[in-house]
Amino acid sequence: MEEHLIEDGKYRYIEKGEGTPMIILHGLMGGLSNFQGVSEYFPQKGYQVLIPELPIYDLPLLKTTVKNFANFLEGFIEHKGLKDVILLGNSLGGHIGLLHTKMFPEMVKALVITGSSGLYESAMGDGYPRRGDYEFIKKKAEDVFYDPKVATKEIVDEVFATVNDRMKLVKTLAIAKSAIRHNMAKDLPQMNTPTCIIWGENDTVTPPNVAKEFHELLPNSDLYWIEKCGHAPMMEHPNDFNHILEAWLKKRNF
Question: Would you say the C-alpha torsion 228, 232, 233, 236 has a positive or negative sign?
Fold first, then answer.
């Protein structure tokens, strides 16, 4: 992504546009560029899009938890002086958004989740990454998408570098365990924040039944599907994703 990365105290983030604040939360292996389609589209529609770099590998090992990422997000919101934010998260980012919304419901006007963890134990991958095996990593990266070509060499190289960094691998596994501990099935029925669920029909990481369960448990949610789409709809079908989200925001007067 070519956007300028702002360094402001302990926060590093991209900021574009003015208007209703929309904070984008990336996943465990996902970079800020995964949301390029969203960050280019919504500033033209009256939204202030912010994409903070989450401290996935920066916290001490014992603090590498979903809850601490949710607290980090709250610190960022307070630092920027924001209120009534829209949170949009993919995979682990969706889980962080859900937990933050449970912890700080007064700060969040709306929540958007896509391929989110939080209910499904295998959301972090059913086979732990094998160090040094590039073809294995390449296949794992391709499996995230309906169209394997979306897993460019740049994406595969980035994942390969992460799993071959011992401390990053240890923290990746710590996050996976934390995500399993923070299963939100019992919390969701008490969460009344308007929630838009956008899911790939062919997601193999968090399968379609996970989206249906989120929809059933979240009392104020709407569920939308994207065909021929895997775990990252905003990457694989950015136009469809943007149009679904824009229509939902208009319907809800956000």
Answer: negative
Question: Which sign, positive or negative, has the C-alpha torsion 226, 231, 236, 242?
Answer: positive
Token pair in block for residue 158: 């980035």
The domain defined by 6-251 folds into Rossmann fold (3.40.50)
The crossing angle, in degrees rounded to 10, of helices 134-143 and 153-163 is: 120
> What contacts 167, CB < 8 A, 6 or more positions away?
57
Q: How far apart are CA 127 and CA 73, in angstroms?
A: 29
Tell me how far apart the terminal alpha carbons of the chain are, to the nearest angstrom: 27
Contact by Cβ (8 Å): 111, 24: no
Closest CA to 182 of 174, 190, 171: 174
pLDDT, tens digit (0-9, with 9 covering 90-100), for 72-121? 999 999 999 999 999 999 999 999 999 999 999 999 999 999 999 999 86
Q: Decide if 13 contacts 53 (C-beta within 8 A).
A: yes
Give the global pTM.
Answer: 0.93
Q: Does residue 169 come out as left (phi exceeding 0), alpha (psi in the -120 to 50 range) or beta?
A: alpha
Write down the domain spans for the chain.
6-251
